[in-house]
Amino acid sequence: MTRAYNFCAGPATMPEPVLSRAQDELLNWGRSGASVMELSHRSPEFQQIARNAEQGLRDLIHIPGNYSVLFLQGGASTQFAAIPMNLLRGKRTADYVRTGIWSDKAAEQAARYCEVRIAADTRATGYTSVPEFSTWDLDPEAAYVHYTPNETVNGVEFDWIPETGDVPLIADMSSTLLSRPIDVSRFGLIYAGAQKNIGPSGITVVIVRKDLLGGAIPETPIPFDYQVQNRDASLYNTPPTFAWYLTGLVFDWLKGQGGPEAMAVVNERKARKVYEVIDAGDFYSNRVERNCRSWMNIPFQMSDTSLDSVFLSEAEQNGLLNLNGFRAVGGMRASLYNAVPESGVDALVAFMKDFEKRHG
Fold first, then answer.
1. 330: phi then psi, degrees, rounded to nearest 5
2. Which of 14, 132, 268, 360 has the lowest CB atom count within 10 Å?
3. pLDDT at 269
4. Which CATH architecture has domain 259-359?
């Protein structure tokens, strides 16, 4: 069977070797006589899978020992609520940086639990830039500062980490974690829905500094309490075991590729190839300022929007899937996560050039 190239923003393409390995192990994992989906999450076998996955992630991004790693349910959107529930710690305000749809949604949910201060905002200019740090209005008494390093819908990406002093920095890295090296020690908490670079949908990684545990507000549902989940090794309630297993396979695959250090070189090159086609003329355009264009998610428009449906239809016929833009934005979007092979990007670039030649 010939596999297509999948440019979906999420659930995103998975590494083919991971899918093949999971297929081989599906009916009989580790000679247990059962599928990994049938193992009890309390069993020694599954707990070893869980420990291996955590260690794999720790190795890949060099997570310090004073950080806990949680594998939770509910996606990043659940963390929009869980973060203020856990991290207010007696304070009443939190600072949010709004640079796209997802950071806006995070601020909207947090406002149910605290006073949200918008410390920096690019909504008025259509989320096409990253605000200069000198313009941020940060409160030194805030419980935390939240930002989204990469906005999947708008294609805006930070290439720097804010310095927030003693106020914990919180980052939604759903679409950028593992795409390049990071210094985890710069953050109070990092969270990421798995369905981009980590694994399948259904599981969310939370990396939290241990001194931030234990201050959940009384109304926090017990499964949302980071201290409880840390105490129980993310096994307070039945986790998405198959998704957890697959994340571990992705971590193994990524180690074999050279880790985030090697992926950063490939990812920058993949993105550059697509932007070069967009910038080569007037047929395609990208509205994001060049110094903050995303490597992971590249939205683009055509000068003749009547061609959008033709482009998407012909792309699909050529095995290039899920290039439609976010429903509220329109246009096209190519998501180039770790598992998207460079050959797929080359095929997309060739198609874009040919399409412009025929329709421009």
1. 80, -165
2. 132
3. 98
4. Alpha-Beta Complex (3.90)
Domain coordinates of the chain in residue numbers?
16-256, 259-359
**Assigned architecture for domain 16-256:** 3-Layer(aba) Sandwich (3.40)
- Structure token pair of residue 138: 């940060």
How far is CA 58 from each of CA 232, 236, 245, 271, 357, rounded to the nearest angstrom? 18, 21, 16, 27, 47
Alpha-carbon distance of 348 to 249, in angstroms, equals 27
- Residue with the two structure tokens 């949680």: 70
Closest-CA residue to 127 (of 149, 151, 143): 151
- Residue 326: the pLDDT is 85
The yes-or-no verdict on residue 131 having pLDDT over 70 is: yes
Give catalytic status of residue 357 as yes or no: no
Residue 73 to residues 13, 15, 59, 97, 211: CA-CA distances in angstroms?
A: 20, 22, 23, 25, 22
Find the catalytic residue in 29, 102, 244, 295: 102
Query: Among 55, 63, 268, 57, which Cα is nearest to 183's?
Result: 63
Record the tokens describing residue 3, joined without a space.
Answer: 């596999």
Q: Write the DSSP symbol of residue 182.
A: -
172 is catalytic: yes
| Residue 236 predicted with pLDDT over 70 | yes
139 labelled catalytic? no
| pTM (two decimals) | 0.96
80 Cβ neighbours under 8 A, 6+ residues apart: 105, 106, 108, 109, 110
Whether the per-residue pLDDT at 108 is higher than 80: the answer is yes
pLDDT at residue number 360: 83
Of the residues 172, 225, 244, 253, only one is catalytic, namely: 172
- Please report the pLDDT score of residue 1 as a whole number: 59
